[in-house]
Amino acid sequence: MPNNAHLRLRSVLEILAEAASNGTRPDAREVISEALRRVPPTAYEQELLSGGVPRGFKNLTTATARLVKAGWMSKGRGGWAVTEDGLRAVAAFSSPSELAEALDAGIPLPDAPARAEDAKSAAAPEAPAQVAEAPAPVTDPKRPSGQPESVAVVGDFGVLLGADRDWDPAANAVQMSFDPADGLWLLDGELPAGRYAFKFALNGSWEENYGAYGLLDGANHEFQHDGGAVTIAYDHSSRDLAPASQLAPA
């Protein structure tokens, strides 16, 4: 199994261990998108398959069946979760290659039970001690820390929304507004009938942008529109299009 696959399967368990320690149960899309953010896909893996899903997203989703078969994670309607054996695996196998070898060879796990906090500590190396600093001030009380300074819907319809040109992350007409009530960035507009493509660009430039499935520098979001009002919503926790969006998929 390629090294990236090793890294991503371990990342899946780490993400689920972190979720367990926080008392949450993420869904498949959240887990796979986060794993691909931690281990970015290649250009080949970002290519969209016939169903509109990036190749890397589909391959990793398929690969997680190995974790289920090993009894290290579970999948259900309520989301994905790490098992007690999965927590022990994260703590016992300190590198992605060791974890992959354990999967391949069926290496037994240690008998001592593991807690979610232990697995979370094993998932991330301890940061070096630093002198405590005062937190940076939040300039906009409506935009909590952790959110970007700005988010733009950058696509082939910028001019239709009032921008001077399409695909301009700095254009005022395509900047989204942050809604503190639900933590989403929103843009409302009117578009004529047609097929459109876009990405989300942060902080007025292309330096950090997210496409389909919340992938950094990922493939464009695409949708077919019958004409009229559109609402595009961005969720920074997933770096992806939020369900509150009112778009017809392409």
UniProtKB/TrEMBL annotation:
Domain Amylopullulanase X25: 151-238
Keywords, sorted A to Z: Glycosidase, Hydrolase
Region described as Disordered: spans on this chain: 109-149
Entries under InterPro entries matching the protein: Ig-like_fold, Ig_E-set, X25_BaPul-like
GO molecular function list: hydrolase activity, acting on glycosyl bonds
Keyword set includes Hydrolase: yes
Biased composition (Low complexity): 121-137
Identification of the protein by name: Glycosidase
